[in-house]
Batch of 2 targets.
Target 1
Amino acid sequence: MNCSDFENAVQRRLDGLGAPGRSELDAHLAHCPECRTLDEAASRLEEGLALMRASASMPPIGMRERIVRQALAERRAGLQRRRLTALALAASVAFAIVLSRNWLTSPVRPPANEVAHPSLKKSVRDAQLALTSIVNRTAGTAIDEGRSLLPVPTSFETPTLLARSLDPPVRTLRITSSRVGESFNPVLASAKDAVQFFLGDDRKTEDGQEK
Amino acid sequence: MIAWRPSVRKSQWLVLALMTAMLAAPTWTRAATPRDELLGLVPEDAAFCLVIQDLRSHALDLINSPFFKEFEKSRLSRCLSGDQDALQLQAALHEVLGVLDTTWPELRDEIIGDAIVISYRPGATRHDESERGLILIRARNAPLLNTLLDRLDEAQAQAGDIKVQVRKHDGDSYRERKDAKGQQYFYVDQGLLAISRSEMAIRNVIDRHHSAPKPFESTVALQLGQLGADKALAALWINPRAFEARMAQHASEAGNEDVALHRAILTYWKALTGIALTLSLDRDDADLRLTLRTDATRLPEAARKFVTAEPRQAEVWARFPEPAIFTVAGRLDTAGWDDFLSTFMEPKVRAELVQRVNRRTEAIGDDFVKRILPCLGPDWGFCVAAPPAGSDAWFPHALAALRIRATTDQPAIDQTIVNTLYFLTGIFVLAYNGDHDSTLSLHRETRDGCTLTYLTNDREFPKGLRPAFALKEGYLLLGSSPEAIARFRAGPLTAVSVPGRKGTGTGSPRPPEGERGGGEGASGANRVGAIPPVAEGSEIPLARLSLENLRLFITERMSDVARHISKKENLPEDEARRRLSALCEVARLFKTVEFVQQSQPNQISLVLRVRPEAPLK
């Protein structure tokens, strides 16, 4: 079984269509940390859905498809997400304001859970995933819409001769600026470590390798 | 009668003693704030320190603000609140609060509303034992804090996520919470909560907490004060000293061709004494501010000039058309920048770059870098404005301006540049017409004493786009049309303030209203007078996006803009209209987004400022 087969199996399991035997899945999970993450996300989703059905506080309409899509998309969109971080921050502020409209101002206590809670840590992780998804999507949409709305004439391209003529000096400056960026790597790496440290991300895989 | 006299004397002494104590120890009284109390517990060698203060009143002000009410009515709010991810987030947070049996207002007002401090120090190697992270919270409701932590322990222990043990240090106790990833340590005392994955860090907090209050502010608090970041809602302090050794090591590992660059970066880094990134909410705006503080004496000569030079606003702010949708403008001392950039390059790399640039600019003159570059600037800018109302040409007026200064060495440099551009444009038109069905036409004419060169292509260009260039008032102008170039203000300038600007400076020079005209060539090249420096601490605008003017432009020209986008993006026109309407909905909430610079001796701040239509408080 490869990763693609595993993803399909997870999708079928969440859709209630059955899936290959657990032993086959476990054999793949034993050597694939990425799919382990996906499997955990799917298990959390099932637990969360069970909890929500029990408390009947939130209807799970379209949620399973969305979360599976989200988990799969997240694996593919890591790089793009980093680029969008700045805009995502702005979007998250807007989102926090929206969220507060519904309940941040409400003094009403959420009902106590009637079933055993799956895991507080997992709920927090779900909240992180949902927030990440919404801010990235908002930022991505903002960039795409902004690009399409720029009134640049389609036929007016950069003259090839000019572009070719400017290319060598521009390339030198570009290389220099990228090397300037690289020299701040110790600071950036520490910032990344700090975020990992506080968000409690797994810093090592089970076989002891750095992620 | 006899009895009250001694008591009055006693109370007088008491008042006097209290006043003396307060005067003698002003820093001690300041340190009593929750924020300062927490900062006193932060290790002095922290690399990053994030401080969030007074979240309670900021949140309440924002929730009750006119801006928030407007936002709630907006389509953006409806879209976001009905989003599936939003519902998922709401469900997850609902669960968390349910387990703790609390509400967000209670958590915000009683636990995290006063101050939160998060500090971090990297380890000697990545994620080793010497790595230190610390979260500190000062809760105003100590019993509630204890209750919530007990509930948290109970819920997590029941779910099998953690095992809790009580440990002792210096006669005090703290909790060890063991989970799948290792240990977490919680120390709680009378509303103070400290959390860390490092036991040593928690023990250090206990030691500091037990020691007598210090009659001075902590290092981080002092630094934040110097950087003007002590009043912000959120402030991230970066300690440059914490990274010096790592950067030096990184520099020593660099390849031969990068040695100069890394050496230069390290020199600049060593000259930095503090960095702060802050977020502040005022009644009329929200500021995101990056402040760099330097010791100018440690900077190389080329960079010192930029730090110590009197800040001046670019003159083009006063010459660009108003009302503008977007403006960006600044001053760049090209000769100085050449020296500055040279510090980052090995002499061999720089010589190659200079040779490449000179070879490609031979049409303007020999030795571009040495003889032509100093003639360019310092003022430059770019502006986009709506076309005048009633004009059937809908395409926005775009205008780029670069000051050209004639020198004794290059007395007619402006004419040389414009003639070269004319020559290159001619070649471009020939090449374009050879490859395309539609043809470009090159025109040259004189308007208001200004010689304009422009291109037309009625088949391909949107209505109102006729790319043009000209010399005017000592500037080389590139515009979206001759009409855009005509809107560049000419004539003498008078000093007025830039609208919406903070600070006390006299602002930019501005020409008298309605004055038009212009000149070209060497006669206009040196006409602009010296721009006075702004007062210390005043702000200099660098860029401004007026969402108000953008919305007006789109609303007035909806049909034309939608048709253009539909053609460009291959979209149905209705879809383009829908997108434009959505953009206007967001733009309706805000007046402007600005990027400004604020300079003080040895300190520079770059501020991203958002001004909403309705007050934030």
Note: The two ends of chain A are 23 Å apart (CA to CA).
Target 2
Amino acid sequence: VDATEKGLAMTRAGEVITKVVDVTELSLKQLRASDDQGLIQSIEIITGRAQCSQTGVLQNQVREDI
Amino acid sequence: MLDTHRVSLEHLDAMAEGTSSLAVVELLKKVNRSRQLVMLRAVLDRTLGITTPLPPLDEAWSLLVAVQRRNEAAVDAVITHPRTGWWTATLLRLLNRDDGEQPLWTHVGYLHQMAAAAAIRAGHDFRMCVPVWRGTVMLPTLGIATVPSGAEWDVAEVCSSGGHVTIGDTRIPDGPGWLALRTLRAGELEVCLDDIDPYREFHGPMPPRRLSDDEVATWSESLRHTWQLLSDHHPETAAELASGLTTLVPCMTADYSASHNDAFGSVVLSLPPDATTFAEVLVHEFQHNKFGVLLSLVDLLDPKGDNETPRLYAPWRDDPRPPTGLLHGVVSFLGVTAFYHNQSIMDSRLIVQFEFEYHRMQTSQAVEILLNETTLSELGQRFLSKARDQLLRWATVPLPDHIREAAQRACDDHRLSWRIRHLRPRDADVIADAWLNERSKPVVEPNTHEENEAAVKLCRQEILARPESVTAWAGLALASEDKTLQDRPELVFAVYQEIRSRGGTADPLRLAEWLS
């Protein structure tokens, strides 16, 4: 973190630093075995958001059959 | 220690301003793949104790691991498939609170379907049991097979050996009983036309509704015209879609479109009537796709606030929306407004000017509601302030007065109807008492413009004939320009209904005047 702006962690390049880890460089085997604390925290954040949000389907009109 | 994702303010501002950007989509695709992997790890962690009639999840996972060593792209294709996003989010919700009628193991077994599909794509030899629904087996990204089964849910074996693949007795990809997913191509765009996946409309399971060859040709031709429009006049938008849109799901409900927060790249839609509408629908839904991924990284609404109760007015929907849904709508309509702004530069039709102005007004209303009636994070404040600035810039675009007036009337009509439908004033009975007992409030004759008198008369008559006609009340508010009716139509409506329920009578406009 190079700076904070209104409570946001920022880099000097003007990037918001999020709390979610980038796992795209991991193989599936590494993903399963990893005990990286950032990954454990990210699982909680992402699954929490997915489980809490009621805004799943986004429709242009309400359909009674869904 | 793994690095965390970063999002530049430049990219956030582009999204807040409705600007198309290939760089943003490339970033979001990477984030989406990462999100999918994190969700898969969560699924594995949380399904350890679940017994199923299928092989253990570890077996399916091991197959995926083995295939990845041999052909990473084959595994990536199924991991980033929109259905996989929907599946992980849905399964995690069900694991948290299983309130579905469908057996849980049939959801869990999608991992086995994924593994089998990836292995087939890679030409990998394997055997894997997968769930069967009403005699069908879906292999994501590939197609659906019919297998003999009389049960609602069953199990079948997928076998691949030396390049020969079978599901039960069905040989793929060329045997009877196999329906492959078909592909539509238009310029740089290549999308799957998914008319078979049982969960293609983000609910289900539902049976395939296979389009005929003629129907596919119609979709293909329509998409070709749309792509011509996009690539000629909206090249940045075309670049975004070519990079991120992967699946079109044809739907039979008229004038319908949908997407899912967790299914990046997929759009459900009925066949639009023309290229401009088709392009608008793609822009609209792909904005949702992009925003769904962004929201997996950052909170624009304060997570401690009430973001899920449907309570807010959305100018594009007849039902109350939660803050999260309204925010999604704002981002979508920022994109649509930007699309019509660009379109109006080369297309002088009045309808294009109207659509631009109408969506600009709608989005402006919604941004103000979010800024004033929700709890935003600091980043959310910044995001919506940028959106407001863009909307104010668009408000200076020269347009004929009658276009602005028509857009304003359409917005007013919807807002008034919504208020009457959804807002319930608590004091309507007390006010009705006053009316019935002739207490207080002077009654003043309504002051209407001469040109609107006929409309006022018609709306009045309609209300007397059908007192609960929301459209008649909204029409009266617009035609009469009565301030009370325009600001609080729900109050006048509710008091009027209360008076009638007690056997009383009132002239709608006199009542509105009395309440002013």
Note: Residues 16 and 386 of chain B are 6 Å apart (CA to CA).
